[in-house]
Design brief:
Helices cover about 25% and strands about 10% of the residues. The chain is α+β, with helices and mostly antiparallel strands. The chain has a two-stranded antiparallel sheet with strand order 1-2.
Length: about 220
């Protein structure tokens, strides 16, 4: 859980901080890069000429984020209810952190030790807020390997991966490797989410599956 939440936190810091440079900023996954950028050979990369300003204050907000004020939450680590509406969330976990720990996130984006080294008291407060208030971050995403439904944010495991009923690909989101899942009709006639893949190695954690062509992209399937 700690490792996953840490990755999410770092991804959100990139989204609200001006300290990322196309092809220069280091990354481990797509979550470490600004929204709609990708992690390519451990560097954040975008086809756009410049990253979109995702600051909380609208135009120019990311260059000089302000720590909002507001009433304190019930948890000692909780955020104070400030607005982070300009920062994009990629999933329910990030959305929860933006809602519950907004002021901690913005404070971290302005603190050099927190923002660049992911350490120090400001980072600890931000990270602990995420752990305490966003339990969904401990659950597996749709498309991730599972053995029980209790492991999944969708509350549904088919004994191989976390899945859910869907009507379109966008309902399925991405797995923890940031690979887009697909909405596929099953033999039973119900549309459900299947793990997206780029090659058979992407399906290694799902016993007996291979990467197979499907409408809109490839999926792991038996």
């Amino acid at each position: 859980m700690n490792k996953f939440v840490r990755t999410v936190c770092l991804g959100l810091l990139v989204a609200c901080s001006p300290n990322y440079v196309d092809g220069v900023t280091e990354c481990g996954t797509n979550l470490d890069c600004p929204n709609d950028w990708v992690c390519r050979i451990n560097k954040c990369s975008s086809s756009a000429p410049a990253p979109v300003d995702a600051g909380p204050n609208g135009s120019g907000g990311a260059s000089n984020p302000q720590i909002p004020s507001g009433g304190t939450g019930g948890n000692s680590n909780a955020g104070t209810g400030g607005s982070c509406s300009g920062i994009p969330a990629k999933d329910e976990c990030q959305s929860c952190i933006l809602t519950s720990c907004c002021d901690n996130l913005l404070a971290c984006s302005q603190d050099k030790t927190c923002n660049e080294d992911s350490s120090g008291p400001v980072w600890d407060k931000f990270f602990n807020c995420s752990l305490d208030n966003c339990k969904i971050c401990a659950l597996k995403k749709t498309g991730d390997a599972c053995t029980a439904s209790s492991e999944c944010a969708s509350s549904s495991c088919n004994d191989l991966w976390c899945t859910k009923v869907c009507t379109k690909d966008s309902d399925c989101g991405t797995n923890s490797k940031s690979i887009a899942n697909r909405c596929i009709e099953t033999k039973a006639g119900t549309k459900k989410c299947f793990p997206g893949c780029t090659n058979n190695a992407s399906c290694a954690a799902l016993a007996g599956t291979t990467c197979q062509a499907a409408t809109g992209g490839s999926v792991c399937s038996l």
